[in-house]
């Protein structure tokens, strides 16, 4: 079995003006496709071909760097697309909203802390809201294509939302203005999908 690029459930231009069509087209069709192709090449003929991408991530310390970089890239982007929606933005509801208030005080405080994590991740990486082993929410960030599922992560947990802060995610439209991209991204966050993940 080999991994494949998941189709987007919305058009490349559906997230405009917050995320532009050209960025989405290159990000999905070129960057994510490259992670898939390179992951398949890296695991060809090994037992990892029989595993899910989640199981590969959970034991990532057992694999060489190309599997970590491209396997992380495939998991992270597959998740990222589902957490974006043209009907997104607004506020979370239900148990996820309550858990955010409990962990961070209120939604605005949560946003501020998440934006800080995204802005201060040096170089390329991701900002995350995770559910940790005790079921509590935490904010963290990871370098490169690492993620909190990985056994090598400083802070481990199940990703509820993730924000790609690699320059390829925003440079065409926002150039060096990562904080502007992070601010705009809240308008397209798919809280319905995030709530489903929190309930898992
Ligand atoms: Mn990316």
Describe this structure in words.
With 200 residues, the protein is mainly alpha-helical. The protein has eight helices and three strands, in the order H-H-H-H-H-E-E-E-H-H-H. It starts with 20 loop residues before the first helix and ends with a helix.
List the ions, cofactors and other small molecules found in this model: manganese (III) ion
Question: Tell me about the biggest sheet?
Answer: 3 strands, antiparallel
DSSP summary, beta strand count = 3
Ranges with pLDDT <50 over ≥5 residues? none
> What pattern of helices and strands is seen along the backbone?
HHHHHEEEHHH
Number of helices: 8
The quaternary organization reads as single chain
Q: If you compute it from the alpha carbons, what radius of gyration comes out, rounded to the nearest whole angstrom?
A: 16 Å
What is the end-to-end distance?
Answer: 26 Å
Structural class: mainly alpha
**What's the shape?**
globular
> On the 0-100 scale, what is the average pLDDT?
97
Helix content: 40-55%
How much of the polypeptide forms β-strand, as a percent range? 5-15%
